[in-house]
Design a protein that fits this description.
By secondary structure, this protein is mainly alpha-helical. The protein contains 10 helices and 2 strands.
């Protein structure tokens, strides 16, 4: 008895093929690549670590022994919160946008748009690397302050970490606006630097906010730098967090997400 030969099934049309979506492995490869790019940027790597340490060296000596009550010093609630928020602002507003602007200008994002690796993967990887860089800078500053000047830990550590995460999100959202409106890497650095200095100046980075004109100080209290410093100081002391500071940080995140989503271009 013979059996009839059956022709092999026809190959599916390209539209019928299952879509390939890059998974965790692709994201990990992209994170490693982004980390190498950041490490090659010597100035961008050193400044978020070196500048806060320099500020601690010049400012902590006169504040480490100045008691402000409840066992805390002016170093704990005055200098360190500013240094921590400075690290987040420098990386989120200044460093990260310049990388994204370079990738857009060089056509990397456009080329990725026709591959299984979405340009969004680059953005996620850059944010992950920026967060890791921020954690490194903050850990270096806090470790140095604790070993050399006897920094006291926050009264409410969990609340301080929550404020830190919220402030980081606000800074990165602000940085995405810079990346969205910057046509070139150089313009991203220029706009980011102006934004970093403006946020810092109105938020107390160059001195107490009480020395600022009242309208400027009020505005600074509601911008991410000032709101982040204020909320972190209160968490350090164990005091209730001012609702206005939290709302200001949430507002900065919302504005950053909406504006960057409307203006950001991959090419």
């Amino acid at each position: 008895m013979t059996t009839a030969a059956h022709p092999p099934p026809a190959a599916p049309a390209p539209s019928e093929l299952p879509a390939h979506h890059p998974g965790l492995r692709s994201l990990l490869v992209m994170v490693v690549s982004e980390a190498k790019m950041v490490l090659r940027d010597t100035a961008g790597m050193i400044m978020p670590i070196g500048l806060p340490l320099m500020i601690l060296l010049t400012s902590a000596g006169g504040t480490a022994d100045l008691d402000v009550g409840d066992g805390f010093t002016a170093l704990d609630v005055g200098v360190v919160p500013i240094v921590v928020v400075m690290v987040l602002a420098m990386i989120g507003v200044l460093n990260m946008p310049s990388f994204l602007a370079y990738y857009r200008r060089s056509g990397i994002l456009k080329r990725l748009s026709v591959t299984p690796v979405s340009p969004l993967t680059v953005l996620i990887a850059q944010v992950i690397v920026s967060v890791l860089q921020s954690l490194l800078g903050i850990a270096a500053a806090l470790g140095f302050a604790a070993l050399v000047f006897g920094l006291n830990p926050p009264s409410r550590l969990g609340l301080a970490l929550g404020v830190l995460a919220l402030t980081a999100a606000a800074m990165y959202a602000t940085g995405m606006i810079v990346a969205a409106i910057s046509p070139t890497p150089n313009s991203a650095v220029a706009i980011g630097l102006v934004g970093f200095l403006g946020l810092g100046a109105t938020g107390g980075m160059f001195g107490g906010r009480e020395a600022l004109p009242e309208p400027v100080a009020v505005v600074g209290d509601h911008l991410p730098f000032g709101a982040g410093v204020q909320a972190l100081q209160q968490a350090w002391l164990g005091a209730p967090i001012d609702t206005g500071a939290i709302l200001s940080l949430l507002g900065a995140i919302a504005v950053g997400v909406i504006v960057s989503a409307l203006l950001f271009r991959w090419s």
